[in-house]
Specification:
It contains five helices and twelve strands. It is mainly β. A twelve-stranded antiparallel beta barrel has the order 1-2-3-4-5-6-7-8-9-10-11-12. A hairpin with a 2-residue loop joins strand 10 and strand 11. It holds the Pfam family LpxR. This is Lipid A deacylase LpxR family protein.
């Protein structure tokens, strides 16, 4: 076998514990920056009809429409959660996401930093008009992809290439009732500059795992771009969402770019105590992970515990994938990809006060011809509202 088998339960728990400890350390550091509240004034008549929003829920400058809080999510994906002998394919990913409160608009709302408002003047085509609520999502992350036998230093021609991707993303969500549209622009680089070799071998050294020896055969440096658009519809029964309830969220959309192009559709089912008023808990969706605007109805913004289980599916018709097809403009290793790919995921999400923890496990169909094992990986997310 190409890696430590981790067959003994003790070794597995130690390795997972080290990773989760590292994750929590990163999560604590990521929560250092937060938005500050501003004052809201109301006339005496309005004050007798409704309470004035708390100072901590309004941005500086104080628009009553821009109520809400910033949210930071730190997500770690790893095939270690898929079981032993799964150190292959999409082997590791780390994503830091910052989500704005509900916004009045993208150009003048004081909730947004001046740099973001300036950026939106050039990306106005990605935003959506005519919706009741809107917000923005900023992400930075890294993904690693490897063949099955990482002990080999030679080129493994019948397995996928080594590839690292470093990506920066800006997204726009727009909501009316139970309908959501989300658009994301992703920019980054694939190749040695994405630091995939350094990241994987540093993590393996930390947990006492085998060094990956084949990174000398990875894809060459290439700038990548991807535009992602999805539409979502939520169906929920008309009852008190502060207790036990369920909902269903359908999604359909696609992406285009030299990173990956596809069409996709799927559904997510949730059941639990005090379901959030959002559009899904699976972290792989563009509008998952607490990123969609909320109306506060049945949300878990208050104190106390809330939790639910979820099952999600996604079917993709893939046209190109640089991590399988190889470099677009340079000679590189590649494999014959499968155009139809499906995911089945399931997990749990727990919320207490401003904190949320979610764990999910994903089973994926084979992504290229001759792939020996079905990919399985897990995802752990820690979130905090500010």
């Amino acid at each position: 076998m190409h890696r430590n088998p981790l067959g003994k339960q003790g070794q597995t728990f130690i390795a997972r514990g080290r990773r989760l400890a590292a994750l929590l350390t990163l999560g604590a550091a990521a929560t250092a920056a937060q938005a500050q509240g501003g004052a809201v004034q109301a006339d005496a008549a309005a004050a007798t009809q409704a309470p004035v929003p708390a100072r901590s829920t309004l941005c500086a400058g104080g628009s009553a429409l821009s109520q809400g809080q910033w949210t930071a999510n730190l997500r770690v994906d790893n095939d270690l959660f898929g079981g032993s002998q799964q150190d292959q394919g999409y082997t590791n990913g780390v994503l830091l996401t910052v989500v704005s409160p509900n916004l009045v608009d993208y150009l003048s709302d004081p909730c947004l930093p001046a740099m973001a408002r300036g950026l939106n003047r050039y990306l106005s085509g990605l935003s959506h008009d005519g919706f009741e609520q809107q917000n923005m999502v900023f992400s930075f992350g890294q993904g690693l992809f490897t063949p099955q036998d990482i002990s080999r230093s030679d080129l493994i021609r019948d397995d996928r290439p080594y590839a690292g991707a470093l990506l920066l993303s800006v997204g726009y969500n727009a909501r009316s009732g139970d309908v959501l549209r989300t658009s994301h622009l992703r920019l980054g680089i694939v190749g040695p500059s994405a630091l995939g070799r350094q990241t994987q071998n540093a993590v393996h050294k930390l947990i006492g795992d085998q060094r990956a020896n084949g990174w000398g055969n990875q894809l060459r440096d290439e700038f990548v771009v991807q535009f992602v658009h999805e539409r979502m519809q939520r169906w929920a029964p008309e009852h008190d969402r502060s207790g036990w309830s369920w909902d269903a969220i359908g999604h359909w959309g696609g992406a285009v770019g030299n990173l990956q192009s596809y069409l996709n559709a799927g559904v997510e089912l949730r059941y639990g105590w005090r379901l959030p008023d959002d559009f899904g808990s699976t972290p792989l969706r563009p509008a998952g992970e607490n990123t969609a605007p909320t109306r506060g109805l049945g949300s878990v913004a208050g104190s106390g515990w809330a939790g639910h289980a979820f099952v999600t599916t996604d079917l993709r018709l893939v046209f190109n994938d640089i991590t399988l097809n190889g470099n677009t403009f340079k000679n590189s290793h590649s494999v014959d990809m499968r155009h139809a790919v499906a995911d089945l995921g399931y997990g749990l999400a727990l919320t207490h006060g401003p904190w949320k923890f979610a764990f999910a496990r994903y089973h994926r169909t084979r992504e290229f011809q001759g792939q020996k094992q079905l990919p399985v990986f897990g995802s752990f997310t820690i979130s905090r509202r500010f």
